[in-house]
Write a structure and sequence with these properties.
There is one protein chain. Helices cover 32% and strands 21% of the residues. Helix 1 packs across helix 9, helix 4 packs parallel to helix 5 and helix 5 runs antiparallel to helix 10. The radius of gyration is 21 Å and the shape is globular. The protein starts with 5 loop residues before the first helix and ends with a strand. The model has no long low-confidence stretch (mean pLDDT 96). It binds nicotinamide-adenine-dinucleotide (NAD). Nicotinamide-adenine-dinucleotide (NAD) binds next to helix 1.
Length: 389
């Protein structure tokens, strides 16, 4: 694994757990983690359960005792690490968004296609597909229970940078992150809605906004919970330009006939990690809220009007996706389980010789949507079609 902070910790937990929960055809060995700081990566290896710590990810790629590389770094290093790993014949799990721009994502999808010929597998970490209630929603759509999909309504709302004194962390710098709320959280709702509906976004009309244009420079490499830098009196010494969007909103048409709205923002005061999706079809509707991730709301318009109404399905039955391996019905699961499910599906695909989803091709298509959103926003919200993959 490369990178050992937020996603590194989430993935490590999943790698540690997956064979203990699921009966799988292969056993995970957590061989080594790579970071740039000897002391910190050594501490992380011990804490997260990796046998070794190395200070250059290239060492992981060149070793014979490593079969899979898990990329948990910011987007600016995804392409370089993935291409080197694939060239060395390693399977690759790469965090989302796949890359910082379409050219990098195309190169990664191309490398994945070449590697596939020798049985090498790739997957992008859109983990919310693996929330059981989301997988159930997908199943309901596939079974036709919602009928023809007319509306998709998706929001992903956070508020962690509403304070203008919050520092200029990597997520606010285009050269490191590619884009802001758009690629960080907008990418999730693009992938999730395309996955559950089976339809792809064909065109968009978008706007983006950056509310706070300059911010204090961070004291050190910092993540979501960074605090402002400054001298002992608390005065800020230096600021830098925010080069990404704080919020991205767009209308979309999907290729199966649905129309959609998307909103991704880090300025929704009071909303911490509010991902909500509602789908309206000719035969029913369904709604998912990440803050109540064990539940799916379902409205069945085919039952008599006197019994119609939104039903709260508690998605904890053994017949629900992924749940047979966990606890008795009603004993709920949480955020981290989506990563354990991600690793389960990846291991099954690698061991079974099939291609896991979302593939790098799927993730390239998400990148093309993000690109269309940025082009539309730059053109005064002009209607913009998504380029073909
Ligand atoms: N699936 C999800 O829900 C989800 C959630 C958060 C982040 N992410 C994605 O995961 C990736 C990492 O985000 P994060 O929140 O873990 O960030 P983070 O800042 O918490 O951690 C990044 C890690 O990468 C390391 N790093 C940076 N550049 C490196 C390099 N060149 N070589 C080696 N290590 C390097 C940092 O030292 C740190 O350990 C991003 O692509 C992000 O979009 C996904």
């Amino acid at each position: 694994m490369v990178g050992y902070a937020f996603m590194g910790a989430a993935h490590s937990q999943a790698w540690r757990t997956v064979n203990r929960v699921f009966d799988l055809p292969a056993q995970v060995t957590m061989v080594a983690v790579a970071g740039r700081d000897r002391g910190k990566v050594t501490e992380a290896a011990e804490r997260l359960g990796w046998a070794e710590a190395v200070t250059d990810w290239r060492e992981l790629v060149s070793r014979d005792d490593i079969d899979l590389i898990d990329i948990c770094t910011p987007g600016d290093s995804h392409e370089t690490i993935a291409l080197a790993a694939l060239a060395a014949g390693k399977h690759v799990l790469c965090e989302k968004p796949l890359a910082n721009n379409v050219a990098e994502a195309r190169a990664m999808a191309q490398a994945a296609a070449t590697a596939r010929a020798s049985g090498v597998r790739t997957m992008c970490g859109f983990n919310y597909r693996r929330v059981p209630a989301v997988a159930l929603l997908r199943r309901l759509v596939e079974e036709g229970r919602l009928g023809d999909i007319r509306h998709v309504r998706a929001t992903y709302l956070q508020d962690w940078i509403t304070d203008p004194q919050f520092p200029l962390v990597w997520r606010l710098q285009k050269d490191l992150a590619g884009s802001g709320a758009l690629g960080d959280i907008g990418a999730h709702i693009v992938d999730l809605t395309q996955y559950v509906t089976g339809q792809r976004i064909a065109g968009v009309s978008a706007l983006t906004e950056t509310f706070v244009k300059r911010r204090p420079l961070p004291s050190a490499s910092a993540g979501l919970s960074a605090s402002p830098a400054g001298d002992e009196a608390g005065a800020q010494t230096a600021t830098g330009e925010v080069t990404v969007d704080d919020a991205a909103l767009f209308l979309a048409r999907l290729d199966g006939g649905a129309v959609a709205t998307y909103e991704a923002t880090r300025f929704a005061t009071g909303r911490k990690n509010g991902l909500r999706v509602e789908i309206n079809g000719s035969l029913g509707s369904a709604a998912f809220d990440l803050e109540r991730l064990n539940e799916l709301e379902f409205y069945d318009a085919t039952v008599p009007a006197t019994r119609q109404g939104f039903t709260r399905i508690l998605v904890t039955e053994p017949d629900h996706p992924y749940l047979s391996a966990w606890w008795p019905p009603g004993h709920i699961i949480g955020y981290e389980h989506s990563f354990t499910h991600e690793m389960r599906d990846l291991i099954e695909a690698v061991a079974g010789g099939t291609d896991p989803r979302p593939s790098f091709d799927d993730a390239l298509q998400v990148q093309l949507v993000l690109d269309a959103v940025e082009r539309s926003a730059a053109a005064g919200s002009a209607w913009t079609t998504v380029d073909p993959a």
